[in-house]
Amino acid sequence: MNSTTATAPIPATAEAGPVHPLWMRISHWLNALAVVILVTSGWRIYDAAPFFPFTIPTVVTLGGWLGGALQWHFAAMWLLVANGLFYLFMNIATGRLATKFFPLTPAGVWRDALAALKGRLSHADPRHYNSVQKLAYLFVMLDLIVIVLSGLVLWKSVQFPVLRELMGGYESARRVHFFGMAAIVAFVVVHLVMVALVPRTLLTMIRGGKPEAR
């Protein structure tokens, strides 16, 4: 699959400055670190009391035992919450949320999804997200909020009775938390595949960089 087919040239009036500002790159990598720790320690916590007929291989879990996994999980939780709030605030304050992720329409998502499947989706200008990217990133933001809220129920169930009931009870919150995590893992897998297909996106996330004309 050729991801550069039908690539359009970058407009001469491309915005000045880096593709990704420094605050966004730092926040991105801190979120990535937090998610890796949360997922791997969360798998170890799940293994201590699985509710499906399978467990996660110990080799890909973090913590060594339930107590150690909980310590890693809580530490990463605070990092995710603090960094996530900073990321959301900066996106709103700088206008990035409105300009990067909207407008978003079902027709646009369908069009870009078909183009991606045919290998014709343009990656010429990393400053601008296509509709599929917009939907994926917005989904991740909402999914992380659900993970945090369900995590609060699991952590302080008695202190958040209304939230617990909205989740359908403690055991239901466990499953919401698990499937929210699974969705993040699926996103990361797809994200890494796309980075492998368009490796210059990784460079812009590390160095900031400017889009290069093709």
UniProtKB/TrEMBL annotation:
Recorded topology in the membrane: Multi-pass membrane protein
Q: Where in the cell is it found?
A: Cell membrane
Q: What is its main location?
A: membrane
Ranges of residues in domain Cytochrome b561 bacterial/Ni-hydrogenase: 19-208
State if Iron is listed as a keyword: yes
An example GO BP is: respiratory electron transport chain
Keyword check for Transmembrane helix: yes
Q: Which residues cross the membrane?
A: 29-46, 70-90, 135-155, 175-198
User: InterPro entries, alphabetically?
Assistant: Cyt_b561_bac/Ni-Hgenase, Di-haem_cyt_TM, Hydrogenase_cytochrome, Ni-dep_Hydgase_cyt-B
Cellular component, GO annotation: plasma membrane
Q: Which PANTHER family does this entry report, sorted A to Z?
A: CYTOCHROME YDHU-RELATED, NI/FE-HYDROGENASE 1 B-TYPE CYTOCHROME SUBUNIT
The family note in this entry says:
Belongs to the HupC/HyaC/HydC family.
Output this protein's name: Thiosulfate reductase cytochrome b subunit
Organism per entry:
Variovorax guangxiensis
